Amino acid sequence: MTLAEIKVAIESLFPGTILENEELADHQVEFKGDQWLEVATFMKNDPDLSFDQLECITGFDTGVEGSLQTRYNFHSMEHRHKIEVIISHDRENPKVASIEKIWRIGDWFERETYDMFGIVYEGHRDLRRILCPDDWEGWPLRKDYEGQLDYHGIMVPKMKEESGWE
Amino acid sequence: MGVLENKFQDNIVVASLDKLLGWARSTSPWYFQFGLACCAIEMMASAASRHDLERIGMMPRSSPRQADVMIVAGTVTMKMALRVKKLYEQMADPKYVISMGSCATSGGPYWQHGYHVLKGVDLVVPVDVYVPGCPPRPEALIEGLLKLQEKIQTERPLTRKSA
Amino acid sequence: MGVVKGDQMILNIGPQHPSTHGVLRLEVMTDGEIVSEIRPHLGYLHRCFEKHCENVTYEQVIPFTDRCDYLASMNSNFGYVVAMEELMEIKVPERVEYIRVIMGELNRIASHLLALGVYGLDIGAFTPFLYMLRDRERILDMFEYTCGARLLYNYMWVGGLSHDLPKDFEKICIDFLDYFEPQISEYNQLLTYNKIFVERTADVGVLPADVAVSYGVTGPNLRASGVKWDVRKDEPYSIYDRFDFEVPIGTGELGTIGDCFDRYLVRMQEVRESVKIIRQALKDIPGGDVHQALPKKIRPPKGSVYRRTESPRGDLGYYIVSDGTPVASRLKMRSPAFTSLSVLDEISRGWMISDVIAILGSLDIVLGEIDR
User: In A16, B48, B88, C169, which residue has its Cα 20 to 30 A from B54's Cα atom?
Assistant: First the structure.
């Protein structure tokens, strides 16, 4: 199926989900986050769409004043078609439904995006940091991240001032 | 040596006690395989068939209690730093540390923006020999080990250390 | 084997343990011998790769990609340059494509040799490890002859390569392949059909195909469960569509489809297929200049790309978002070992603690790639 047909199939069952955005490429589509769990279940179980492989979940920070995004890459092994779904979140309180019960790899991918960006996935069975230690402060991959000065007494930056090593 | 030299047959050796102890302690240090990242693969390659580490007396041990030398091979992160310290404290005296690779020496290629990288393992444990490289060749690691053996030989374990 | 409910204890394996898969901590709930749950703890090698990619230029990212999957650095580079060339729409010369395939497949052989040797070491067989590492050293010699480095190469650049093949490389490579092919039967005699090895790996840790796809497992682990999926054949990149090679899948030869023995055997068969690909590439390699298409300054157009390639561990994906500047806005590496490790809990329930070591070894993980 082409992307246009996939969009029609999703829009017919879940009207209002797809947001129009000219800046997106051919394979990308932006969804509104409120019905995400139902749309995702439909994408997996419908025999014409059959997206059985969740390839990657990437978090993205559009800028210091902008929003946070979660980008999902899906692929169907049966029909050999792909789609990329973008969902935007408010910077102050980013959250969206978790899809880890549908594709089991969503579990670890969502934990990683939570660890790096602070996006909360509601309904996740065990949302905690996966790469940084549990008592780490801050969301490292956000554009406005300020590293902490020390961790349990060990100094974190190379030097206190960033000078002279360029 | 001096007065007593060549007075006895060939199988009697006369030396100072420090030198004798230095020779005995340096020639078969067992290393604690603390391979963390890419340098661990070069450490394994130096222990394998082509550059054999056992011919200079080094045997890999997996438990810190049985080891003399800890080769910190790879990047130490903040999460791991506390464990490195704990493992170092579990080793029995006399113990030595070799910092292998640029990451363990000073943070390596991750020094500038690595918020989770420890910029040098000498911030948590005292290091005896630094082996630079990214990763150092097996020959470089062997040279580092031989330098450590020289360092152990020149130690004076019987001299009372001044406070 | 059923899960025994009784007094459970927590056994901590790692983060420093003698098996050389790296710094991984496994929290095992067990009643003493039978495992009921495993919780892996990662992050002990989190080196902030993605943060570095947002602060250094696109050319400077390549040595960092080497260090993520340090056993197969040529393939990590390959994945990155394929994604970047798709974003920037660069066409590289034919000679570059052939050399990239040769180097990628040689590194695949080296990575599999190390994985299989270390797996034998985990099970308890020391000799195959020494034999396989001896042959791997010959491959590393060839890499050193070409680009000067043994383990981390920085060889594939966006639009070309860093060095051309040196004098007589084709002859040295053919000599190595002629020496190496009979060695595979020697490994089979030493390890593969050894009774103890088969008893410890056959029927252990069976991974069903639907569980594998849901957990995002790819590469030899997925193929051992019977699913015929190889990015080189199904979404071909570079010039892989010109070569004739098979994709081995697990058949449950000595046990069940998808057990540890199948994962081991699929890797052994893939080594043979890589030798075939290298022979075909060496025959047809054209002349040319490998530095011809290197761009003066890498400044991709605004946009994003997600491209996956086949690394020895599975689908290596790079998601790159560019905003028109020489520095990436976001670069995410989708690592195949991350997804392979996530399935460990599911397939180890009900097995004994020593079986957990056998299962973990058969998944072939590299912590540098998982933690990035």
Answer: B88
